[in-house]
Amino acid sequence: MTKNLPLSMIIPVLNEAAIARESLGRLPYGDRMEVLIIDGGSQDKTIDICRQFPVQVFRSPRGGRAQQMNFGAQQATGDILLFLHLDSWLPPDFFTQITQTLTAPSVIAGAFQLTIALPGWPYRWLEKTILWRSHLGQLPYGDQGLFLYRKHFQHLGGFADLPLMEDYELVQRLKPLGRVAIAPASVTTSGRRWQKLGLLQTTLINQAIVLGYHLGISPHTLARWYHRLP
User: Fold this and answer.
1) Which of 117, 167, 100 is nearest to 140 (CA)?
2) In the predicted model, what is the mean pLDDT of residues 166-171?
3) Which of 43, 57, 110, 201 to pair with 101, CA 20 to 30 A apart?
């Protein structure tokens, strides 16, 4: 029987050829971890590029990022699962940060702080609000690199089969079981989504989606609204 590795990094992708080479070139690789790329049906060169790196590449059943990450968790052999967006880059000491965070008393899961790879004080302000939300509300989002022990992920049944908010929903189910802690270091995430619509509009849309979720609007309806945006 294969001995479990300490950590499995699970990265869902879909048509990410434009950033795959740079992002995978930034990843750390080593014998204490495995990197699983879970493709959701890319029509570009994403898979070809990924296969040039020391990663495992899988095609998951179609159905969205939640299904991709659940499928990746099923393939993983690590005791710890780290769910990472392709455009979020880990701090150099990420492995130590993860293990120290998860071994702290009462911690059930963790995530990193967030740095946005764009200059200017509005983005520094946004980073601070994300930090307050993450610490005070124990509400990190998926772009912050959510990590937890595989046994806890399996106990909860993984991500809910939602087209949107799957990371938020999982964190809500984790909180009654223990503290969702924030590591001292940051992941650095691409600014591409803020550049697309602008900081203010992107922030307002994100908060509207969260508000709609708490008001009981179906995530499928929210997803349809979200994907109609330019």
Assistant:
1) 167
2) 93
3) 57
